[in-house]
Automatic annotation (TrEMBL):
It comes from the Bacteria. Catalyzes the conversion of (8S)-3',8-cyclo-7,8-dihydroguanosine 5'-triphosphate to cyclic pyranopterin monophosphate (cPMP). Belongs to the MoaC family. It catalyses: (8S)-3',8-cyclo-7,8-dihydroguanosine 5'-triphosphate = cyclic pyranopterin phosphate + diphosphate. This is Cyclic pyranopterin monophosphate synthase. The lineage of its organism: Bacteria, Pseudomonadati, Pseudomonadota, Gammaproteobacteria, Pseudomonadales. InterPro entries: MoaC, MoaC_bact/euk, MoaC_sf, MoCo_biosynth_MoaA/MoaC, Mopterin_CF_biosynth-C_dom. Residues 13-147 form the Molybdopterin cofactor biosynthesis C (MoaC) domain. The active site is at D125. Pathway: Cofactor biosynthesis; molybdopterin biosynthesis. Keywords: Lyase, Molybdenum cofactor biosynthesis. Substrate binds at L73, C74, H75, M110, E111.
Length: 158
């Protein structure tokens, strides 16, 4: 059942006024595949634009904080923690993991997914001059804890 519909069937922001604030956390990931030479360039710090992973990490953090401006009907949230990690997996893959936390009345799944997605897009943007064929794939929610709907754990994938 879609929960962003009002009594007239119109899209609306869910009213969370009566929900108790609870500790909530969500973890999402994005996978970026590229040429092995591109990943090697990033890892060796030889990219002309500087530390690609650091810029992508900051972009993901900034995006999580602004999710409500990007995704219609998302609540503006006071996140208490945002962590974005980029890990090179030889020979041609970067796994991006975003973790968002808060104590609030609604979940942080969209913030984690947005952080992972924007970090991946930033990685692409910074490297597109040397590898336009990069592929962003498998953006998904890994885990979610807290809230009325309970916990969620995605199936393990390679």
């Amino acid at each position: 059942m879609l929960t962003h519909l009002d009594a007239q069937g119109q899209a609306s922001m869910v009213d969370v006024t009566s929900k108790a604030a609870t500790s909530r956390e969500a973890v999402a990931e994005s996978i970026v595949r590229m040429l092995p030479a591109t990943l090697e360039l990033i890892q060796q710090g030889g990219h002309a634009k500087g530390d690609v992973f650091a810029v992508a990490r900051i972009a993901g953090i900034m995006a999580a904080k602004r999710t409500h401006e990007l995704i219609p009907l998302c609540h503006p949230l006071m996140l208490t923690s945002i962590k974005v990690e980029l890990v090179a997996q030889a020979p041609d893959t970067v796994r991006i993991t975003a973790r968002c936390k808060l104590a609030g009345q609604t979940g942080v799944e969209m913030e984690a997914l947005t952080a992972a997605s924007i970090a991946a897009l930033t990685l692409y943007d910074m490297c597109k001059a040397v590898d336009k064929g990069m592929v962003i794939e498998a953006t998904r929610l890994l885990t979610k804890t807290g809230g009325k709907s309970g916990d969620f754990q995605a199936e393990q994938r390679p």
